[in-house]
From TrEMBL:
Keyword Transferase: yes
Recorded superkingdom: Bacteria
Keyword field: Pyridoxal phosphate, Transferase
Protein family: Belongs to the trans-sulfuration enzymes family.
Cofactor: pyridoxal 5'-phosphate
Protein name: Cystathionine gamma-synthase family protein
Length: 417
């Protein structure tokens, strides 16, 4: 298996650790708990510091267990390099911190994950200029673009209302204007979609979600697709330009300023858990997508349900684009109950489905949106964003389909008004 680039998605992940040749023929990369690394010859240490040799000096900025996971994510995303972080939020924060300067302008989707939206507000408070637009049409991005714009940040499928960003057109626009195009691929994962195909510069993944998959470790990553031309990008340190291949200056600056200085390092034990979880990403997602499609069809025809938000449904506003771009429509969906149904009583009647805020777990999780993840926004912003008070977000898991639909059927029957 030397030409493992040509193997399928799951085969590649399964054999990735082994091909890095860990000791004793181990099939997993070991969990290296060492914080620091010793050198026989001081020149070796110096070379690592001066970017002249690959190696490990201090585990905050690199650890072999974490490297093995980074290598897997790079292969999954078909990029050139990945940096893993302690969480998805750390990956997003580091990417922006490392590449954007005060005076720069960022265009972001107005349907971003709540905590991403919140960290962007913090960046605004310390001097960045950020515009929020409905990213389901590239026209909205063109409208706010200025000669200060450096980055466009979108997600593939938005949470909770499942809007799909105008990814192809935005990628073309970013290429044309030489903008960093950052795509948060968490909701689709590299199994359903590879942002490199729409010319993304960087791909963010919350490894906590589908890639890890079992809700037993937090992690995040940023992958460089290799498509961005750094030659005229102003915010790169000269010392990197002098010592690193031109294609690698962006990701190296994220490793230094974002990871090393920011300190959001992934622990090796967590990297191991995520790495093992990632072996079954394709199997889990196939099953979750099948369950989600069946559940969406069931809920859509139910008299107590007023609306279902799922890109797999024909009446979803971006159904065609989603069909074109994504292998399947994902495991995330939302629905709203008709007026008069007691939302909390309904949720409490669910016996299998867990009331929980995570997503991408093997188990199906439900959360009332307006009261939790979108509570801080206030009623007015929620109304603007089209989030009804009775909206429930579901992260559909891999349970047996009859059990899952049965749980909803029973809870809805008992909630009839
Ligand atoms: C969960 C999530 C994040 C943040 O990831 P953490 O690992 O929880 O920090 C970022 N983006 C999206 C789309 C997410 O769903």
């Amino acid at each position: 298996m030397n030409d493992n680039e040509k193997k399928g998605f799951t085969t590649t992940i399964l054999h990735s650790d082994r091909l890095l040749k860990p000791e004793h023929g181990a099939l997993h990369q070991p969990i290296h708990t060492a914080v620091t690394w010793g050198f026989e010859d001081v020149q070796g240490l110096v070379n690592v510091f001066q970017n002249k040799a690959k190696g490990y000096a201090y585990s905050r900025q690199g650890n072999p267990t974490v490297t093995a996971l980074e290598h897997k994510v790079t292969q999954m995303e078909q990029g050139i390099a990945t940096i893993a972080f302690s969480t998805g939020m750390a990956a997003i924060t580091a990417t922006i911190m490392a590449l954007i300067k005060s005076g720069d302008h960022i265009i972001a989707s107005s349907y971003l994950f709540g905590n991403t939206r919140s960290i962007l507000q913090t960046f605004t408070d310390i001097g960045l200029d950020i515009s929020y637009v409905d990213a389901t049409s590239v026209e909205n991005i063109k409208e706010v673009y200025t000669d200060k714009t450096k980055m466009v940040l979108v997600e593939t499928i938005a949470n909770p209302a499942t809007q799909v960003a105008d990814l192809i057109a935005i990628g073309d626009f970013c290429e044309d204007k030489k903008l960093l195009f950052v795509v948060d691929n968490t909701m689709t994962s590299p199994y359903l979609f590879r942002p490199v195909t729409v010319k993304a510069s960087f791909v963010i993944n919350s490894l906590t979600k589908y890639i890890g998959g079992h809700a037993n470790a937090l992690g995040g990553s940023v992958t460089d697709t290799g498509l961005f031309d750094w030659a005229n990008y102003p915010n790169i340190a000269q010392i990197l330009r002098d010592s690193i291949k031109p294609q690698m200056v962006g990701i190296t600056q994220i490793r230094k300023r974002g990871l090393r200085d920011g300190g959001g390092t992934l622990a090796p034990e967590a990297a191991h858990n995520i790495s093992v979880g990632s072996e079954t990403l394709a199997l889990r997602l196939e099953r979750a997508c099948s369950n989600a499609a069946a559940l969406a069809a069931f809920l859509e025809q139910h008299p107590l349900v007023s609306k279902v938000y799922y890109p797999g449904l024909k009446d979803h506003p971006q159904h065609e684009l989603a069909s074109q771009l994504f292998h399947r429509y994902g495991g995330l969906m939302s629905f709203a109950l008709v007026d008069g149904v007691d939302l909390f009583a309904f949720l409490n009647r669910l016996q299998l489905v867990i009331k929980s805020s995570n997503l991408g777990d093997t188990r199906t999780l439900a959360i009332p949106v307006a009261h939790t993840i979108f509570f801080e926004l206030g009623a007015e912003r929620r109304a603007e964003m089209g989030i009804p008070d009775s909206m429930i977000r579901l992260s559909v898991g891999i349970e047996d389909q009859e059990d899952l639909i049965g749980d909803f059927r029973r809870a809805l029957e008992a909630s009839a008004i």
